[in-house]
Design brief:
This protein is mainly β. The chain has two domains: about 45-175, no CATH class; about 215-345 and about 370-405 and about 435-480 and about 495-540, no CATH class. Helices cover about 10% and strands about 40% of the residues. It contains three helices and 24 strands. The strands form six sheets. The protein has a ten-stranded antiparallel β-barrel with strand order 7-10-11-16-17-18-19-22-23-24. A three-stranded antiparallel sheet has the order 9-8-13, with no helix packed on it. A hairpin with a 2-residue loop joins strand 19 (about 425-445) and strand 20. The longest helix is centred in the N-terminal third of the chain and has 24 residues, at about 5-25.
Length: about 550
């Protein structure tokens, strides 16, 4: 070989190696990336298209399919409608691989942005040609550059001009079933609702994207009670005035049941969610009673009932029962609680890792609005003639209705600890400030009408008071629970909840010690508070 040509070739290879090294280090291209770029540059689908061909798009990497290794010694197999060639790099190596129809590949293709350049040299016949292989360097006939073009998906292939007269039009290719790759087993994958179907010959079809399950809903039950209220008594025995009966504490709210319903939607790749919540408690009525036989002496009412006139008589005759006579004092209390929330959640997580992507211990945050309603009814009844309350004319009633409507803004945090992949513990807290609109009704009377005040500055006025008040209230809630994920759709929850409210009005606090002071009854006392607590359980579904 001519020494000058040898030196020229060595110089070209040295310059290429040095340029690749500098490019890799200056622009941060890794060795693997550079090798991948080199392989793609030699891939037949990236070569320049001959005259009359459209540019071949470059397909992205196909998951689960390894790139075949091209051997320069291989020759291309004849494809339907294409002439065989014998130049260096083989577009279709002779092997057991067969082509997969492009429409079976769900990835989009992108047109190649770079085409390899071929160095032109002066051949021995004076014509410019492309330097490829050793034949031309040794003085042989010039070789044509390798020019291969695969058809675009869904497009009919075009023939080179120099073969237009000698080859028939390409026939429509029939779909080919992929062959089993030696040494590769394709399992049936499933993830987050998505799945991969296995073909009969062992190839795995591309995984369908998982079905988005952005909506969630929970249905469950709550079982709660409230703290004991203050003592307030309505009756006593004249034989021992310290023996006071018909106590509000004896008619406190017992454990009551209700239901919990939630619905919401995840967004921002499950980093956030908006949630609507309702839960309510509907406990049974509670009552207590005192009969004349329970006390020493007369069974009397504690309040100054003789300052009221009812049915043409002072009201005390409907309450005072002489020893040996049958009479009854009864107290009945009703409660109800309604809670509505609209919350915006910020979860610790990401698109790739989901809500459990932060750590085993993570925190979620919320802001929202809440409406909380607490109703209480207190009814004191007396019958001095028998032992049953039947709403007859000889009975008198003292009725108090209170409604607290709290509307306000809240913030909260939920700490979650992943005990396992399926089990988590939750500890949440919510705090808020609310405006409390209070509606109040107090009335004394019965079948014979409304009692009236018979002395003092409000003489002649009916004891029928309706009033309202706006006040500020504070509400805090604490939840501690467990969640168990049965599968990607169903999750079970169980836990304990406590809720404390201040700045609310209670029914017994609206009783003024002197029944003549209806002006004081109109002034609603909202200085009290209450605590609800109990358990809950539910089942969450995602769709």
């Amino acid at each position: 070989m001519n020494p000058l040509r040898v030196l020229t070739i060595a110089g070209v290879f040295s310059a290429a190696s040095l340029g690749s090294f500098l490019f890799t280090n200056l622009f941060g291209v890794s060795d693997n990336a550079a090798d991948a770029q080199t392989l793609m540059a030699h891939s037949p689908s990236m070569l320049a298209a001959p005259t009359g061909y459209s540019q071949m798009p470059a397909y992205g990497q196909m998951p689960a399919y390894g790139s075949p290794i091209y051997n320069p010694t291989m020759t291309r197999q004849a494809m339907p409608g294409y002439p065989p060639t014998s130049y260096g790099y083989a577009a279709y190596p002779t092997s057991g691989y067969r082509s997969i129809q492009p429409q079976a590949i769900p990835h989009q293709y992108q047109a190649s942005s770079a085409l390899p350049s071929w160095p032109y040299v002066q051949s021995n016949d004076g014509q410019a040609s492309v330097m490829l292989g050793r034949s031309e360097l040794l003085g042989g006939p010039p070789l044509a550059p390798p020019q291969v073009q695969l058809p675009m998906p869904g497009a009919s292939p075009q023939l080179p001009r120099n073969h237009a007269q000698t080859q028939q039009a390409p026939r429509a290719q029939t779909p080919m079933q992929p062959q089993m790759m030696p040494g590769y087993a394709m399992p049936n994958y499933s993830y987050s609702g998505g799945s991969c179907d296995v073909w009969a010959n062992g190839y795995a079809q591309m995984c369908a994207p998982p079905k988005a399950r952005n909506w969630f809903g929970t249905v469950g039950g709550v079982f709660m009670t409230r703290d004991h209220g203050d003592h307030y008594t309505f009756s006593y025995g004249t034989g021992n005035e310290a023996d006071q009966r018909t106590n509000t504490r004896d008619a406190d709210m017992d454990w009551g049941g209700g239901f919990d319903a939630r619905i919401g939607r995840y967004f921002n790749c499950e980093r956030n969610a908006i949630e609507a919540v309702y839960w309510g408690i509907f406990p049974d009525s509670q009552s207590t009673q005192t009969v004349s036989a329970d006390v020493l002496g007369n069974l009397n009412g504690i309040l100054n009932w003789d300052s009221l006139t009812y049915g043409g008589n002072t009201a005390d005759i409907y309450l005072n029962v002489a020893p040996g006579d049958d009479g009854i004092h009864m107290l009945n209390r009703d409660f109800s609680f309604h809670n509505i929330e609209l919350n915006l959640w910020k979860f610790c997580g990401s698109c790739a890792a989901g809500k459990c992507g932060c750590s085993r211990l993570r925190h979620n945050w919320l802001v929202g609005v809440r409406y909380f309603r607490f109703d209480e009814n207190l009814l004191f009844a007396s019958d001095a003639d028998d032992l049953q309350i039947t709403h007859a004319d000889d009975e008198i009633f003292y009725n108090i209705d209170i409604e607290n409507h709290l509307i306000g803004f809240q913030v909260g945090n939920e700490a979650q600890y992943c005990v396992s992949d399926r089990l988590t513990t939750d500890f949440g807290i919510k705090l808020g400030i609310y405006g409390n609109q209070i509606d109040h009704v107090s009335e004394i009377g019965g079948n014979l009408g409304v009692a009236t005040i018979n002395n003092g500055p409000f003489i002649g006025q009916e004891f029928n008071v309706e009033s309202s008040k706006d006040d500020v209230a504070f509400l805090g809630e604490v939840d501690f629970g467990l969640k168990y994920c049965f599968n990607c759709r169903w999750t079970g929850t169980i836990g304990y909840r406590a809720l404390a409210v201040t700045g609310v009005a209670l029914a017994s606090d609206q009783i003024y010690s002197d029944l003549r002071g209806i002006n004081d009854v109109e002034n609603i006392d909202s200085s009290r508070g209450l605590i609800l607590h109990g358990g809950y359980a539910g089942l969450e579904h995602r769709w």
